[in-house]
Amino acid sequence: MRRAERLAEIVEIVRDGRLHTARDLAESLEVSDRTIYRDMDTLAASGVPIEGERGVGYLLREPVFLPPLALSSTELEALSLGMAIVREAADPELQEAAMTLLGKVEGHASIRRRSPKSWGFGVYAFEQAKPGFVHMPLIRRAVQERLKLRITYVSLAGDKSERIIRPLQTDYWGRVWTCSAWCELRNAFRAFRIDRISGCFDTNEHFDVEHGKTIEDYLEKIAKTFEN
Amino acid sequence: MRRAERLAEIVEIVRDGRLHTARDLAESLEVSDRTIYRDMDTLAASGVPIEGERGVGYLLREPVFLPPLALSSTELEALSLGMAIVREAADPELQEAAMTLLGKVEGHASIRRRSPKSWGFGVYAFEQAKPGFVHMPLIRRAVQERLKLRITYVSLAGDKSERIIRPLQTDYWGRVWTCSAWCELRNAFRAFRIDRISGCFDTNEHFDVEHGKTIEDYLEKIAKTFEN
DNA sequence: CCCAAACTGACAGGTTATGTCAGTTGTGTT
DNA sequence: AACACAACTGACATAACCTGTCAGTTTGGG
């Protein structure tokens, strides 16, 4: 089974998002270039989206992993429930992802045979599309990449304000999403309800992890509040 | 790659939970017994928990599937969020499954490399362990296997009652779980809040899908209610 | 004890994978 | 426009691997 392992190894190497030439791969895997080209065919046939450009090299745009997982039926059930909730309770981008993921998993004959498509879950976590939800993908990206955002926020009292925030975490409260952030207008931590964010723009400005302004600091502060 | 396909096929066949002899497998896959024995070695080496007993046959206890999935990072994010919610919002059995599933996925080196362990999600779907939650696994099983249950229910008004129900679906409402069922006491559809089910027992009695008493009928009835 | 069926080892023959070589075709750079 | 680079392709010999056959051994159950 050296071949199968090598195929996995190629994906491992290429998924770092950088360019790799067939020769480099061939050297590090101790096979000939030709073998690499053949392997690339096989991978492409298996649906791995590796792109090869002549004169350039190979690139794996979409991060991919292919672990041959062994899931118990309870884990499969948890996956199914989780995706049902995400499909209902998250923003369109994650909804889409949840559905394609579930599709990939249920598409495998082994599962179709056992589950009559339904696990008996009903999920009604949300009313129809909440207003601020279109901004969720941007907010999530901002959290991950430490990107400052400029938002227009309408408070529960109805006051409109414009702020620069450092989004630290997105929070799910069962039926409501909020974003925990450091607010540069108030110079303090604030939690913004996603459905009350009417405008949201990328500032193209990154923020550093500053002592006292991290999500851990925020959570700690909240914990202390509850102690009293 | 006929070998790789055959290995997958073996798992496919054996995962029905019944006994299979090497000879039967060999016949249906059109190879010799010897090849099956060699394949079993390979599968065992790959970590598939197939058990073989001399004089008996092969058995796969834990249902398993091993689809070499290719997930996008967004799908991975959806999976992570979904499991975070399930870990917070579901019963202990599914919580456990969600954690082991996430463990299996994140355990794969390819992912560890990219995600700094956290996706920036905070999930606070529930207070601490709700009372009725211990019954959830039984209820889920009952839904899937059409098993009647005998429950002790405390209504919102505080009235205690004992009923035989035919559980049709478990419903997640963001912060609350209910069970949609046909209630044999009231002879009508009822939705029971899980946290108000104080007792729950298996009656060992199955129910048939009766016209007018299915989950589809219930959902239709609810839809009509909203029309008015 | 006997049977069934999992297991093991050896070897020949077939199939597949690989390396070598000799090209062609795009892409980016000078 | 010429050039370098690297993806690609085809052909063929050889090495590696897989498979079937056969002849056993081991283990659990009746």
Automatic annotation (TrEMBL), chains A, B:
It holds the Pfam family HTH_11. InterPro entries: CBASS_pafABC_assoc_protein, DeoR_HTH, HTH_11, WH-like_DNA-bd_sf, WH_DNA-bd_sf, WYL_dom. GO terms for molecular function: DNA binding; DNA-binding transcription factor activity. Residues 3-58 form the HTH deoR-type domain. It comes from the Bacteria. Keywords: DNA-binding, Transcription, Transcription regulation. Gene3D superfamilies: Winged helix-like DNA-binding domain superfamily/Winged helix DNA-binding domain (1.10.10.10). PANTHER family: PROTEIN PAFB (PTHR34580:SF3), PTHR34580. This is Predicted DNA-binding transcriptional regulator YafY, contains an HTH and WYL domains. It comes from Cognatishimia maritima. The lineage of its organism: Bacteria, Pseudomonadati, Pseudomonadota, Alphaproteobacteria, Rhodobacterales.
